[in-house]
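re: the backbone from monday

yeah here it is again, tokenized this time
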């Protein structure tokens, strides 16, 4: 059965809603350009006669994306006519920029929407939107279309750069889906409606301007890119961050970190005859005006010690100190290059200091991911790495103290190590003595030391009394090899837990001897320390002093429930205690290892009688 058409007096909306048909005076201006005839020929649906004035069924209304759109070629004063050049007294007019609104469509066609007749890419002079009575087959568009982009840009002189703002036509249709109403007749066949559904959904009002999905600056002026890169190259830190492909794209993270420094450089090198300096200033002015609110919001969030997914890409910058938690300690790096893999993932090319008797650069690659897990805000400490400038946990003080400790251990040094921190200590114990000796460790284990260029960081003078200042001081290695006298093993020590040796000055007083004997022993030791000649009777014993008065023998009830005979051995060592290895002839302080390192100490130890 043929369906009856609805007259022009009214049409029906969703759920029986009745909407009056617009009169001719209520409709927007339908003036179109010379390109409308070709567009109309491409339409699948037939064009009707003057349907505004005649009784034309609603089902035969054509798509109205042409309404409100004028071709820029037919607009007076555009590039079809000679450009207006003001009288500037012989001086060149100031550079300018223009914004081009670019609408991109994938020309999809399904039961809900029909983009098959849209242009792949269309350029406009104004912000695109959808207009009153547009259907789900209408294109996202502005009122003034640019038919010939190259000719249009050539007319805009002197043009420094062009800002392209990109818009997604299908995406905007999806966002505006709820604003469309059904205008199909009530008695329309279902098969016909489903076949032509996109054309029977229309807008009651103009929509708000669309939001750009991307923005990019294209340099138009000759030599402007070369001049900008030449200016940036004068500062090594900001030049490592520059990328021609990504730095001029929204959100302009490069200029968030570097715009102030670029202005400083520009003020020092700008010359009156330089034609590119005003264009660079114009570029900075545009980016700062567009991003000022976003940058201020990011600064407030960072100052609170937090980060959001929107500000995550602005977190890192090249040339700054990056800190990372490794094995329960903080390791510092200097960022060389910061690249955005995705909006939630940042790759950082960085380096730290390595030490093998000299300082070397050790390159590394950090991958930092946003791990919000649905949270809007995340604390910086939750990230794998974070900038030192934003740290609120006093890590800078810890790195400064580490630099002082490591500098004291750059040469051979006896130290005390607290708690045996680190993954190579299976069972934490108390404080023990370690000998820091990187040269000996490298000789014994050369495979643990890679080959480095010999001229790296030659500016670090090992003969200085104080550690290097500035960023290099924060990069001192977090670990150093040390030989433990308690178990005769080399271990990797965390510099943060190294302490000076705290000698027990009262150990000698605890020995039960007559005052005259103690005075004699003290005189022997003092004399030995002051005499540099080899006066020991035992050849090859080293620089240690062993004194064993025969009459000072003691008996001790050993752990095996039997009496063991001990003598008192006064030796150079680092501890005081009882040696239960009777008959081995080894002294408690470490035997040959203690002699090898020349641990010049006058403490008392107990050892078996020879």
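seq for it, each position gets an aa:
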């Amino acid at each position: 059965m043929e369906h009856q058409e609805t007259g022009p007096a009214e049409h029906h909306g969703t759920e029986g809603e009745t909407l009056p048909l617009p009169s001719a005076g209520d409709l927007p201006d339908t003036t179109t350009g010379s390109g409308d005839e070709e567009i109309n020929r491409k339409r699948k649906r037939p064009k009707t006669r003057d349907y505004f004035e005649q009784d034309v069924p609603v089902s035969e209304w054509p798509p109205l994306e042409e309404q409100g759109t004028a071709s820029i070629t037919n607009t007076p004063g555009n590039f079809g006519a000679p450009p207006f050049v003001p009288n500037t007294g012989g001086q060149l007019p100031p550079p300018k920029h223009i914004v081009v609104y670019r609408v991109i469509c994938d020309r999809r066609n399904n039961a809900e929407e029909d983009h098959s007749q849209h242009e792949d890419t269309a350029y406009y002079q104004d912000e695109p939107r959808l207009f009153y009575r547009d259907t789900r087959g209408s294109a996202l568009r502005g009122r003034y279309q640019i038919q010939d982009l190259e000719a249009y840009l050539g007319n805009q002189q002197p043009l420094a750069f062009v800002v392209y703002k990109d818009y997604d036509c299908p995406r905007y249709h999806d966002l505006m889906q709820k604003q469309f109403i059904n205008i199909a007749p009530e008695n329309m066949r279902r098969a016909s409606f489903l076949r032509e559904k996109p054309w029977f959904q229309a807008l009651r009002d103009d929509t708000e301007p669309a939001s750009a999905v991307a923005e990019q600056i294209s340099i138009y002026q000759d030599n402007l890119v070369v001049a900008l890169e030449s200016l940036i190259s004068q500062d090594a830190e900001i030049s490592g961050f520059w990328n021609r492909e990504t730095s001029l794209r929204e959100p302009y993270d490069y200029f968030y970190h570097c715009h102030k420094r670029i202005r400083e450089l520009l003020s020092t090198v700008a010359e009156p005859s330089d034609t590119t300096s005003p264009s660079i200033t114009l570029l900075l002015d545009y980016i700062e005006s567009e991003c000022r609110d976003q940058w201020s919001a990011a600064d407030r969030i960072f100052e609170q010690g937090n980060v959001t997914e929107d500000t995550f890409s602005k977190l890192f910058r090249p040339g700054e100190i990056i800190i990372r938690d490794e094995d329960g300690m903080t390791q510092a790096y200097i960022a060389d290059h910061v690249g955005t893999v995705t909006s939630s993932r940042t790759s950082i090319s960085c380096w730290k200091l390595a030490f093998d008797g000299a300082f070397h650069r050790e390159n590394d690659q950090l991958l930092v991911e946003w791990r919000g897990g649905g949270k809007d805000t995340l604390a910086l400490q939750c990230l794998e790495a974070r900038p030192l400038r934003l740290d609120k946990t006093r890590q800078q003080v810890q790195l400064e103290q580490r630099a002082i400790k490591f500098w004291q251990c750059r040469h051979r040094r006896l130290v005390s190590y607290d708690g045996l921190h680190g993954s190579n200590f299976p069972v934490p114990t108390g404080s023990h003595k370690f000998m820091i000796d990187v040269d000996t460790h490298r000789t014994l284990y050369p495979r643990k030391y890679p080959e480095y260029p010999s001229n790296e960081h030659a500016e670090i003078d090992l003969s200085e009394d104080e550690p290097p200042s500035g960023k290099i001081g924060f990069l001192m290695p977090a670990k150093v090899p040390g030989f433990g006298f308690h178990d005769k093993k080399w271990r990797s020590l965390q510099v943060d837990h190294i302490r000076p040796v705290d000698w027990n000055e009262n150990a000698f007083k605890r020995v039960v001897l007559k005052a005259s004997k103690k005075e004699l022993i003290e005189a022997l030791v003092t004399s030995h320390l002051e005499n540099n000649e080899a006066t020991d009777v035992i050849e090859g014993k080293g620089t240690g002093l062993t004194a064993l008065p025969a009459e000072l023998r003691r008996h001790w009830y050993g752990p095996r429930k039997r009496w063991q005979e001990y003598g008192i051995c006064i030796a150079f060592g680092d501890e005081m205690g009882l040696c239960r290895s009777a008959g081995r002839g080894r002294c408690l302080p470490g035997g040959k290892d203690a002699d090898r390192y020349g641990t010049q100490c006058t403490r008392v130890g107990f050892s078996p009688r020879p």
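The two ends are 124 Å apart (CA to CA). The longest helix spans residues 277-303.
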